Amino acid sequence: MKHITIKDVAKKLNCSVSTISRAFNDKYDIRKETRDLILSTAKEMGYSPNPIAKSLLKQCSNQIGVIVPEFTNSFFPEAIIGMQEVLLKKGYQVLIMQSNESCVTELENVKTLENNMVDGMIISLSLETKNVEYYKNLISQGFPLVIFNRVSDELNTHKVLIDDYKWAFFATEHLIYQGYKKIFHFTGPSGLAFSQKRKSGFIDAHRKHRLPVDESSIIETSLMIGDGERVMEKLINTGNLPDAIFAVNDPTAIGAMKMLKKYGYKIPGDVAIVGFTESKLAELIDPPLTSVAQPTHEIGRTAALLLLEEIESKGIFVPQTVILNGRLNVRESSMKLK
Length: 338
Known about the structure:
The structure is a single chain. The relative contact order is 0.12. The chain is α/β, with parallel strands linked by helices. It is elongated. The chain has 13 helices and twelve strands. Helix content is about 45%, strand content about 15%. The protein folds into three domains: about 5-50, Orthogonal Bundle (434 Repressor (Amino-terminal Domain)); about 60-160 and about 295-325, 3-Layer(aba) Sandwich (Rossmann fold), CATH 3.40.50.2300; about 165-295 and about 330-335, Rossmann fold. It starts with 5 loop residues before the first helix and ends in a 9-residue tail after the last strand. The protein has a six-stranded parallel beta sheet with strand order 2-1-3-4-5-11, sandwiched between helices. Strands 7-6-8-9-10-12 form a six-stranded mixed beta sheet, with helices on both faces.
């Protein structure tokens, strides 16, 4: 069923959106007959005004909602610290919610924040989120929304991310320069944009150096340590071990390392490993993990600044996609032993 917006009501009555808005907000310059017609038509069409948009016309709550997939990965807590650094100084309270990688929970979180009349939201999409129609409707009604890290190309709003393709390319090329030939990629879920971009970087680095890439060298997994363990154990049991692995993120890389060590394999002597995210565990694990460092704190700060800009613009803004730079931190896990 189509979601009815204020624009649909305006089109039906051949009048402006501002006229419809003034009718719902009981402005004195709207005649009673016109207001009654607008309200009755809107009711027939199934339209009800967005409670957040309506409250913004009257007052601000000075609250910002933040929704992230999970907290076990240090990326999200560190990004939130960056957001709070900006928002708290501006007098905003930050309401933080977790989707637990569930699209259902994510939508429930959004609606809870709506009911709390937040002035805007910053969101990183869950693994399951494929349908973004609800977000499109929020954006079409002028609700301030910024998405970061896990973004959707379907949403015409501010986005903050790293150049996943470029840094996946560099990470793979680092392994090639170390002399590794048989390199596998543990790619993330295919529905995530960053998974696709990191996989493309992996493939193109091979093409540049004229190294073959076949389907068996690209293995889809999820994003947790246990996922890396399961994939790695399967490879060990089948006897199909690579020389090196580029993992979609640090948790899957660390899971692979744990399983290799459990079975007595040496890192990097038998298998070299590179991750992506630069989690706190990257330096603590033995051997230390080579990883692409994301400017996590700056991602959070930038997302917050863009949201404030959108709130202050009162709907007149040009959506930006801000791509921040990364860094490859080379450690022992990927160095070719002499």
